[in-house]
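Entry 12.
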Amino acid sequence: MAARKAAGGAGGSGLWLWLGIAAAVVLLDQIAKVLVVRSFDLHDSVALTGWFNLVRVHNSGAAFSFLAGASGWQRWFFVGLGAAAAGLIVWMLKKHPAQKLFCFALCMILGGALGNVIDRLLHGHVVDFIQLHYAGWYFPAFNLADSAITLGAACLILDELRRVRQAR
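Predicted 3D structure (tokens):
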């Protein structure tokens, strides 16, 4: 049993560390969204730099407003998808808590997914507030949860590249 705990086994503290990091992502995301909702009316925008605005927009769809124009069923579809992904991620964290980069990636994705699921449950849409732009080109607005998901995806790719390199 001691060897299992030292290796970050399922009964060890490894899982709780990763879940704690995911919870911190959710907390930071939700605090930021509450501040934006309290401080901005819908579609308000404040330029902070020549390339970065704080805005308040609502997205009833997924990434890049995918399915935003659907009749409302997408809200529950994305809540269900987020819940299923969260369950799978927790299982994977429990199974591999000692794989640090892999678990960091998963906890970023978990925290981001749950942050956006909470929005869908509370508001029926996701609150986005970060807008990047350059020379008249505007990237779609996003939030901290989306940033965490993106970071997690990048880390998953890096982890897999490292795994492939080590196998050679």
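Annotation: The first helix runs from residue 2 to 6. Residues 1-11 have pLDDT under 50 and may be disordered.
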